[in-house]
Amino acid sequence: MRVPVGMPLRESEAIVLRTTRLGEADKIVSLLTRQWGRLRAVAAGARRPKSRWGALFEPMTHLRAWIFERENRDLLRMNSADLIESFFDMQKEYRIQVATNYLGEVTERLLPEREANERAFRLLVAVLKGLKVSGEVNRPLGYFDYWMLKLGGFLPDFERCHNCGRDMGQGAFYGPGSEGLVCRDCKPPAAASPLPKNDLRTMALACSQPLDKWLRTQRVGDSIRVRLFLEEVIRTHAERELVTVGMLKEEG
Ligand SMILES: [Zn+2]
Hints:
α2 (118-134) packs antiparallel against α3 and α3 crosses α6 (224-237). The protein is built from seven helices and seven strands. It has 252 residues and is α+β, with helices and mostly antiparallel strands. It folds into two domains: 9-85, CATH 2.40.50.140; 91-251, Up-down Bundle (de novo design (two linked rop proteins)). The protein is elongated and about 60 Å long. The strands form two sheets. A five-stranded mixed β-barrel has the order 1-2-3-5-4. A two-stranded antiparallel ribbon has the order 6-7. β2 and β3 (37-43) form a beta hairpin. Bound molecules: zinc ion (ZN). Zinc ion binds at residues 161, 163-164, 166, 182-183, 185-186.
């Protein structure tokens, strides 16, 4: 590999979030890198039919990438990449594909550009492995939502009302646009049926361990309603509608 003189070279593990076309031959690759957080880089020649490396940029591919700063240019440039692990085959199953689109979209929406967040990177890798190994959508995505909110400082209190601060008792409510759970007295008119306290506690306990351990050692359980609540909070924080959320609800 030739290194242009005077250009800082950066090497990092990265996950491909999305690609967009750039002209006839190139792609812009949106990445979550381990060292520098989220960024976008031009992969020259990645759209050429016989390009050997175009195939590396399928969504959610785990790469080792070599990235250059370009003088006076907003976009970085990726000069080389090696495959670490592909998460492409599992996306042949539609619900897994929708799940990975959701992961990419939430990551792009919630993480600022060029702000290192190694825990978010490790979370995304763990969730992709969880999807691949288990073929299950609900727990890996619930784990992702829980930890994305926790890492961002947005994880709602599972015990006390977001509005009045009192203990929520046995039922916790939320509605569209919620940032937290509220008690029966504070529930919004469009509230869904209450989330049992037990489900919330079970979810918090499950997410306090590594995802692979949860998937391996415990039964599936009833975490889907808590996941849908966490997804609503993510939607609120993402400021505008996430296109994949509606599709996930249909898929269950
Ligand atoms: Zn209240």
